[in-house]
Please model this.
Amino acid sequence: MASEGRLYRSVLNKMRELIDSGEYPPGGRLPPERELAERFGVSRPTIREAIIALEALDQVRVKTGSGVYVLETKPGLHDIDPTVSPFELTEARALIEGEAAAQAASMITDEQLERLETALNDMAEESVDGHLTSELADQQFHQIISEATQNKMLAAVIDNLWYVRDNSPKIRRAHQSICETDGRTRVKEHQEIYDALKRRDPSEARKAMHAHFARLLNKLIAANESEQIEEARRRAVESRQRFSLDHLVAQPQSTR
Amino acid sequence: MASEGRLYRSVLNKMRELIDSGEYPPGGRLPPERELAERFGVSRPTIREAIIALEALDQVRVKTGSGVYVLETKPGLHDIDPTVSPFELTEARALIEGEAAAQAASMITDEQLERLETALNDMAEESVDGHLTSELADQQFHQIISEATQNKMLAAVIDNLWYVRDNSPKIRRAHQSICETDGRTRVKEHQEIYDALKRRDPSEARKAMHAHFARLLNKLIAANESEQIEEARRRAVESRQRFSLDHLVAQPQSTR
DNA sequence: TGCGTAAATTGGTAAGACAGAATGTACAGC
DNA sequence: GCTGTACATTCTGTCTTACCAATTTACGCA
Model:
């Protein structure tokens, strides 16, 4: 299953999806705890945990005895430009993290290499079932590299890119639609980055990082295309239905 | 009491206090749920809720079967880190704006090239007397390039770098100490970037951008060195004066 | 219109079964 | 006697079921 160790996290993710997708719009009320518990097939305390996490993330406000209400997302607080597309973000990450990897290759310490290896193992171990640990290991991997550049400004910029990735609803959704099917490929790509860093080869490190993001970008593009095809098909069916309806009511004149 | 509607919040606050006060240092482990429940006089689910909120706030990491561990608090992602040095910033700008220039070289429009030329002229005209217009033209030049990448994320990152440059006191001071003496060199460097962009040559554009920042970095280093020498001299004078003062009061016994 | 009760909803607790991780212990082999 | 491995125990977080309390909201009735 989508089990990731702790149950409430899986519930949390599903709820965030529902909120992001507009199922529960800002200002609206979530279903009661008991109903959610039944719907997700978990107990009520677990739902409560997910709601509390949601509350801590400022996505929701709980009013005792009344219900839990969706807050409007305030992107202005951390100024994420909502018009930034997943493609732009990934391209920017490719360029910037590519340079970071090259920089890190000539600066990285043995201790940091060890931590990279740990993260790599975590990624490989959990790549089968749980996404959470795998995701976390992924993030740690990249963070260690940015730290290894010994440039706090560069590290801060990269942190910011991850923040945008995790907090822009549009981008979150795009990633969720592709992050299920990968697995060994991702581990292999990170392995190649690690190898280049271990050899202290800046050029190869940059190249491996670019390759990693290039694949990600291609997946995003493919997912977007199939989504658009799906959308087009849906519209086609819709208009066909409308046409047939028009035909039934038999209005020979008006095309509308 | 400290009750604020929901019990877990009061527990959460107490725990945060304990963590902040150093009672539970980063890397350390919190007491087990059952013990905390007894200590705070609440039930275990309530403790769990508080821990989950703590986890959502990135203050704590839960390891199943082992315990809950305190994370080191990261400085705010979006505040300017005051420990970032002018060198780090300039290095980061070199890498990132270098890639931006390469990207821009293959995407830039004729209209943007025109605006670059205008900025270049402004820079050249004013390079003799007024620094203000020249500074502004410089910033515009770089902004047009980041815009030409057609990547809003990359442009936002570069904007952020300029913001740090303009708003970190330490970095502002460092720049002011070197920005007076340049002149034709800077214009010439920007001219070379412009030429590469006009030829639509990514590699040369990157190279020219790197050269620009490399010179800036060297100047910063030189200024820093001379500043440190100055500082050392000042201290030498100071200690010499103190020595002579000690000598004047003529205390043969105590070394203080 | 105003008030009071009932329904709906979240808040909190208790007790226990379960699973993973750490720890201690005993036994086998050297 | 010493060491290392295998097993058992204990510790710890995970999740459930069941129950009652407190608060808000809705509705009916006067």
About this structure: The radius of gyration of chain A is 22 Å. Chain A has two domains: 2-70, 86-231. The longest strand of chain A covers residues 60-63.
